[in-house]
Amino acid sequence: MRIGVLALQGDFALHARALARCGAEAVEVRKPAELEGLDGLVIPGGESTTLLKLMEAWGFVAALAEFHAEGRPIFGTCAGLIVLAREVENPRQVSLGLIDVTVERNAYGRQRESFEARGQARLDGRPATIEMVFIRAPRIRRLGPGVESLAELRGESVLARQGTVLVASFHPELTDDLAVHRHFCELVRRARVAA
Length: 195
Ligand code: GLN
Prior knowledge:
Elements: E1 2-6, H1 12-21, E2 25-29, E3 40-43, H2 48-57, H3 60-69, E4 74-77, H4 79-84, E5 85-89, E6 99-104, E7 115-123, E8 126-134, E9 139-143, E10 148-153, E11 156-162, E12 165-168, H5 179-194
The structure holds glutamine.
């Protein structure tokens, strides 16, 4: 199983390490042509405005719409969630719209208000306690009807999925807990079987 990590900006190296620990081959992606032959893609955290500008400049917007339409799973964390969302607030900004959620940027506070938490998740039909690191994280304010929440913090969804698109407002790659990456790998495996 080959899973790409978008390596334009942000903390892509730790995602690659987590995927490798789950048994997948992790591939850094810097050009749309490098999406070829991949079974899934992770869009890491960073700064969503910068990330989106780089994605537009390199031709990733159309390439990812196609990647998604072909049924290949995409996992966005933090800034990655923001670029995948249908609607972005604080401030409003364009995004790829591949998952029907509304997110509010930086809604858990500033850099120094970053925090860690443990939360209950439901992954592959099983309850799991997961470690969550929030860094200038976006808040998921609205979930569309086709979106399933897989974990909550203080009553709000922090991990959600719509079909083959998985998003987290926190950074699972910053802990040793592989549960969320394992869940994504499982999504990728199922999508391959279906294809
Ligand atoms: N605050 C960033 C943004 O709005 C996201 C932060 C992160 O990815 N850790 O794009």
